[in-house]
Amino acid sequence: MKTRLISSLAVAALATLSLSSCALMSPQGTLDPYAPSDGVEVNVADLEVRNIMLLTNKNAVELNLVFGVVNTGSEPAKLGFRFVDATGKELGKADVKVPTGYTSFGKLSEDPVLLTMRGLDAGAMVLVYIQTPGGEQSISVPILDGTLKDADGNYVFPEYVEYVP
Fold it and tell me: What DSSP character marks residue 103?
């Protein structure tokens, strides 16, 4: 009887260990940082640039650079964007002055950052070099068509309609 109880406990412990240890060696996805929106994010020196995206209309010629930025420094900073194609040829550039604290850019009613770049389609990604006096980072930024509608005539991205050029 004692050996049967010990054998049962050993089998139960072994089964529990073998079934629950799957997560022991698996990577935990919740530890991976990610941008929880449609845009991407990057940190350059004292600037934390968030939810960077380009919004366009069906023609995809004029694009609106939309993003938020947190300047953790004690002085206003210059933030530069240089857009390049796959060969490294410059497609366009933009410079903005960022005050301290949080600032959002891209509203059409508040001095938007509009760019004219040919050869870019909605749904694509474009390589952007983000520059400050303290450093530079490159990142691929998505191009979204804010005028897309579903089969029922509803905007696919209704929150971006006011940002579409």
Answer: E
Residue 57 placed within a domain: yes
Give the pLDDT confidence of 86-120 residue by residue, as tens digits: 888 899 999 999 999 999 998 888 888 888 887 78
Side chain identity at residue 54, one-letter code: L
Using DSSP, state whether 135 is helix, strand or coil.
strand
In this predicted model, what pLDDT tens digit does every residue of 31-47 receive, in sequence order? 666 666 778 899 998 89
Q: Which domain holds residue 145?
A: 36-163
Domain membership of residue 18 (yes or no) is: no
Q: What CA–CA distance (Å, rounded) separates 142 from 80? A: 17
**Within a domain: 14:** no
Cα gap 105→151, rounded to integer Å: 31
Look at residue 123 and give its three-state secondary structure: coil
Answer whether residue 94 is part of any domain: yes
Burial 35-71 (b: 16+ CB within 10 A, else e): eeeebbbbebbbbebbbbbbbbbeebeebbbbbbbbb
Asked if 79 and 96 touch (Cβ cutoff 8 Å), the reply is: yes
**Burial level of 140, CB count in 10 A (0-12/13-18/19+)?**
exposed
Q: Model-level pTM?
A: 0.75
